Amino acid sequence: MLAKRIIPCLDIDKGRVVKGIKFESLIDAGDPVAQGKRYDAEGADELTFLDITASSDKRAIVADLVRRVADEVFIPLTVGGGINSVEDVRALLRAGCDKTSINTNAIKRPELVTEAAEIFGSQCVVVAIDARRDMNDKDGLRWNVFTHGGRNKTELDAVEWAERVVELGAGEVLLTSMDRDGTRDGYDIELLKAVTSRVNVPVIASGGAGKLEHFFDAFVAGGASAVLAASLFHFGEYKIADVKNYLRGRGVMVR
């Protein structure tokens, strides 16, 4: 059994770390290089760095900022935001990241996932899925996929899309519940279970961490391989060690 991973997430807007609620009302949460160094020192297993407005603003990849973070961080680094081509993936990997996260452009051009996986290996390709519960679904078990940092709704079903991106070559799925993002009400376990039961690659749970037991629930009830959190760590409510010690105490194998 693989050990579970704890991954702080740095959402970046205009070169600063930000945090919001349900992808809105963003507030400043610090300098990405300083935050990255702190999480590395605290024992984070990986770090995820997402330029959340790169696709919507059609900005170029911020490779220079990635280099600055990679120079100071010695744990695996995943970078996403505005990745349009294999050349963008190559530029990010050369800048120092270990994995790239593709969201909007995986939907626009699904073959990008396959091309990147074939050239760099599936282990370098994470597909991020931003999902919101479909309130028109009478069973309440359908989630729509959103693009452009949660701005644009698609008709894609999140579970079916997760299956599809794995077929295309994604080595990992970063699954964010937009309904839970920033609420601290816990991860969407129903969404997690729906996806983890249907794909055979690691699924990273994102959106909703507020208490230590939420991490446990994501792993044990939701089947996640890793958990992503932001505001709890950014504002010092919990350290990485707090989460790992709690999980070990409840029998969860962590790194």
DSSP helical segment count: 11
The secondary structure category is alpha/beta
Quote the distance from N terminus to C terminus.
12 Å
Globular, elongated, flat, extended or rod-shaped: what is the shape?
A: globular
Number of strands: 12
Which blocks of ≥5 consecutive residues have pLDDT under 50?
19-27
Roughly what fraction of the amino acids lie in strands?
Answer: 25-35%
Q: Work out the oligomeric state of the chains in this entry.
A: single chain
- Order of helix and strand elements from N to C terminus: EEEHEHHEHEHHEEEHEHEHEHH
The biggest sheet, with number of strands, parallel, antiparallel or mixed sense and barrel status, is: 8 strands, parallel, barrel
Q: What is the average per-residue confidence, as pLDDT, rounded to a whole number?
A: 88
Radius of gyration: 17 Å
Q: What percent of the residues sit in helical stretches (DSSP H or I)?
A: 25-40%
Strand order in the largest sheet: 1-4-5-6-7-10-11-12
Describe this structure in words.
- The protein has 11 helices and 12 strands.
- It is α/β, with parallel strands linked by helices and 255 residues long.
- It has an 8-stranded parallel beta barrel with strand order 1-4-5-6-7-10-11-12, surrounded by 7 helices.
- The termini are close together.
List keywords for this structure.
alpha/beta, about 260 residues, about 25% strand, eight-stranded parallel beta barrel
